[in-house]
Amino acid sequence: MRVVVLYHPFSDHSGIVTDYAAEFEHYKGKTLDLVSLESIEGADMAELYDITRYPAVLAMTDTGSLQRLWQGTTLPLMDELSFYAQLPQQPISRLAHLIIPSHAQTAA
Questions:
Q1: What residue ranges do the domains of the chain occupy?
Q2: Secondary structure of the chain in the HEC alphabet?
Q3: What's the sign of the alpha-carbon dihedral 23, 51, 37, 65?
Q4: Is 42 exposed, middle or buried (0-12, 13-18, 19+ CB in 10 A)?
Q5: Into which CATH architecture does domain 2-84 fall?
Q6: 57 vs 70: CA distance, rounded Å
Q7: Residue 74 confidence (pLDDT) above 60
Q8: pLDDT more than 90, % of the chain
Q9: Residues 55, 1: contact at Cβ < 8 Å?
Q10: Taking a C-beta distance cutoff of 8 angstroms, is the pair 56, 69 a contact?
């Protein structure tokens, strides 16, 4: 799943959103996608999902299906949002083994 925060970067709520995203990453170890409403992607998302108040937090599946939506300056609890946010993906082999990148060894 993907969690997107739509916001206006040059507004009163931009500080609230950036602080929330930083704290969320610090406490939960997961990241939120901050998308500006001034960008083409942000404007398209706001229109597609009928967003009327900002900031807006959207929890979506990988295919773009909306699972949950929060609008306005009252942001969701981090525990609630953590359910929808995914951890960064680790590469896994066909045999379900974690792939650890090998670092080139230098000859001494």
A1: 2-84
A2: CEEEEEECCCCCCHHHHHHHHHHHHHHHCCCCEEEECCCHHHHHHHHHCCCCCCCEEEEECCCCCEEEEEECCCCCCHHHHHHHCCCCCCCECCCCCECCCCCCCCCC
A3: positive
A4: buried
A5: 3-Layer(aba) Sandwich (3.40)
A6: 5
A7: yes
A8: 66
A9: no
A10: yes
User: Looking up tokens 């609230």, which residue turns up?
Assistant: 16
Please state the rounded mean pLDDT for residues 13-21: 94
Tokens of 9: 């970067």
Asked if 7 and 36 touch (Cβ cutoff 8 Å), the reply is yes
Please give the backbone phi and psi of residue 61, each rounded to the nearest 5 degrees, phi first: -75, 170
Per-residue pLDDT tens digits for 84-103: 887 555 544 445 454 455 55
pTM recorded for the entire structure: 0.77
Residue 42 has pLDDT above 70, yes or no: yes
Find out whether 9 and 90 touch, Cβ atoms under 8 Å: no
